[in-house]
């Protein structure tokens, strides 16, 4: 039967959090949680972070993986992320660094 294939199973489709760069808005209001693409936890330890992010001060230079310009307006953001205080509810853990060359994404 053509509808039932027993061959290789399909890989699960997930969002790639390593493609988050550019202008980012961090949503903290739980009423707008559904507008966000990911739920993030802002961690203090770099060793346990999924992304080590460099905070860029100019939107034009936020053009690489894990380099973010934090915008104060949701309308101008390329990505909207909901910030949670509970690490267990987060999709990814983010740590901010002060050195641009340390910015990385761990899958």
UniProtKB/TrEMBL annotation:
InterPro entries, per the entry: Septknot
Domain 7(1) septoil knot: from-to ranges: 18-106
Domain of life of the native organism: Bacteria
Protein name: 7(1) septoil knot domain-containing protein
Organism for this UniProt entry: Pontibacter fetidus
């Amino acid at each position: 039967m053509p509808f039932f294939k027993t061959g290789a199973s399909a890989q699960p489709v997930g969002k790639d959090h390593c493609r988050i760069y550019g202008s980012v808005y961090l949503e903290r209001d739980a009423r707008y949680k559904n507008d966000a693409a990911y739920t993030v936890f802002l961690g203090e330890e770099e060793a346990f972070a999924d992304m080590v992010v460099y905070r860029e001060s100019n939107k034009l230079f936020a053009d690489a993986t894990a380099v973010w310009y934090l915008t104060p307006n949701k309308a101008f953001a390329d990505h909207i992320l909901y910030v949670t205080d509970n690490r267990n509810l987060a999709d990814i853990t983010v740590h901010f660094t002060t050195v641009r060359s340390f910015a990385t994404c761990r899958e």
